[in-house]
Design a protein that fits this description.
It is a single chain. By secondary structure, the chain is α+β, with helices and mostly antiparallel strands. Strand 1 and strand 2 form a beta hairpin. The longest helix has 14 residues. About 0% of the residues are buried.
Length: about 100
Amino acid sequence: MLAYVDDIIFASSSAASLQRNVKEFLDIVEGTDANCFTWYLGIKMSRTGNSWTLSQGAYIDSILEEFGMKNAIPSATLIMSNVYGKVDISRKKENKEGTQDLEK
């Protein structure tokens, strides 16, 4: 049998248990322990204390690039009213750029 695994993450609340599990795994299969990682399957991961932040900014940028929208300017949109309440599109105001935004 042949198995190919590009990335794998081990996690544990115990550092000793984590190290033991990684060692046991690497005794069975060929691989390396990167110890700390910043990217996994295209998701940027960063840790601050006990908190992790996950970001798909690079993925979003690649989609914008693919569809020629890299320099697009975001603007307000109408969103499902059953989630965000009824939106009255008749109340508009002009912003500094001369475009219209919905009043809050």
